[in-house]
Amino acid sequence: MVWHSAGAVSRRRLLHWGGVLALTGGGLALARSAFAVSLSGVSATVNVDTLNVRSGPGTTYAIVGKLSYGTKISCIATSGQWFKITIGSITGYVFSPYVTLVAASAAASITRGLTGQKLVSLTFDAGADRGYAGSILDTLAARGVRASFGMTGGWAGANGDLIQRIWREGHHLINHTRTHRSFTGFSTGAAALTPAERLDELETTEASLKALTGSGAKPWFRPPYGDQDAGVLRDIAADGFRYNVMWTVDSLGMERSQPRPDRFPNPEPARE
User: pTM score, two decimals?
Assistant: First the structure.
């Protein structure tokens, strides 16, 4: 079940990883974070010839230093499209498209599980209203089924009781960003999010989940709309998300239509 509605593309998708099922969908975009979000263990390299470091997150702030191409920096916070960074004696802000986040390896995209085994893993995404969440949880509990839930930070903040119940009943959480904006802009026609905006989306959601359950969703991530590219896989990995959870079949559940092979990650049709 997908609880996404109003103001954006709304759809439900069914993932079959050779017997592994998952659901996801489009959703309601919320306002951007108005505050800086702290980061830990995130590094980047300068990708322009000369990069100004400013005293605040904008071009109107004073320049407090200059960095050359290839310089490695530590990103310690986000602020809109800017990173707060530190290197040596310099601490300030840089425009995040002018740096490239560093990850030991890109996140792995999971499109199928072990097709030689009869295994089913059911997952649900939540991003707008409460929908049938309570009823779904009742059914899962009655049948002794543990599922995975892709959560937006906005939904978590509005439905803390359901998040706590999901966690308490032993289900697994996936970070589905804060506002469900496309990281690449492919499905929405919007501009791609900058590296700082992407990490803001991830870390604000982690903070919401931790506040409610004591645990975040790392290392699991599901991209809104399924939109991903090499840059997305690098950026999420730099923030500790090692697994990018995809799907192969679109259920078209929001349109009450029959499932069909999805256009996104895998051309192989799902098996019964």
Answer: 0.81
